[in-house]
Amino acid sequence: MLQKVEQNVEHISTKAEHYTDIAINFATEYGLKLIGAIAIFLIGKWIAGQIIKLMRRGMERAHVDATLISFSSNVVYVALIIAVVVASASNLGINTSSFIAIFGAAGLAIGLALKDTLANVGAAVLIIFFRPFKVGDSIEVSGVNGTVEVINLFSTTLATADNRTIIIPNGTLVAGNIINNTGKSNRRIDMVFDIDYKDDLKVAKEVISEVFKNHPKILAEPAFMVSVGALGANSVQLYARPWVLVEDYWDVRFAVTEEIKLKFDEHGITVPFPQMVTHVKREAI
């Protein structure tokens, strides 16, 4: 009986030594690789963070647009992290070629599923790099007019003059014409004033010119223009073209229109209404 117990103890001890040897060999072979992979990931992540910091700092010193800085930083950081993950997996003995192939296949499937979304991302890249407009610009696009508030990877947000928010997909936005009202420092106001054929044309032109000369926000250069633009069915049309700073456009347009109307009243210049002259022909009975 005692001999049998001793044999069992010896057998258990042998198995324990065997499993211990396996554990030691496993720890020796894979433990160092695991520690190395973790070290590669942590150090690589830290280096990626430092690279992004240097990149952002350099772009800020070069006065690059904030939207471009954010977008570029995110893209580069994701690419660096993917490279770090692949390097860590390679250190563990994982076949990275198949790993990359799996990611490629997954990326292709996702790309096909999100075709329209990726089109918006591509449009965002065009907007950011070619900069047809920037945050704070007043633009007309896709039949709407507003001030650009946000440009992200998928859409552009506009704020209208009556404080509404319009969100336009970037793909739709770049597919049409874009009018940037604040792309230049100066802007011309195109105005048309109708006067009666019986009114004094020279007086009317002088009145408009005096209003433009005396208004403090109308620029001297480029010089304004007041000319006869057309002889309409019911009126003579005077085309007036003053220049102002972009930020003064609407204030000056409203103020000048009102002031010219008051001056017309003072000088007896009338704005005619549409008229129809009817001739009655009588036939002899």
Topology diagram in text:
Elements: H1 2-61, H2 66-91, H3 96-113, H4 115-130, E1 138-141, E2 144-151, E3 155-159, E4 165-169, H5 170-175, E5 178-180, E6 186-188, E7 191-195, H6 201-214, E8 225-231, E9 236-241, E10 243-245, H7 249-266
Antiparallel strand pairs: 1-2, 1-5, 2-3, 3-4, 6-10, 7-9, 8-9
Helix pairs in contact: 1-2, 6-7
Structural description of this entry:
With 285 residues, the protein is α+β, with helices and mostly antiparallel strands. It folds into three domains: 112 residues, Helix Hairpins (Orthogonal Bundle), CATH 1.10.287; 48 residues, SH3 type barrels; 81 residues, Alpha-Beta Plaits. Helices cover 55% and strands 17% of the residues. It has seven helices and ten strands. The strands form three sheets. Strands 4-3-2-1-5 form a five-stranded antiparallel beta sheet. Strand 3 and strand 4 form a beta hairpin.
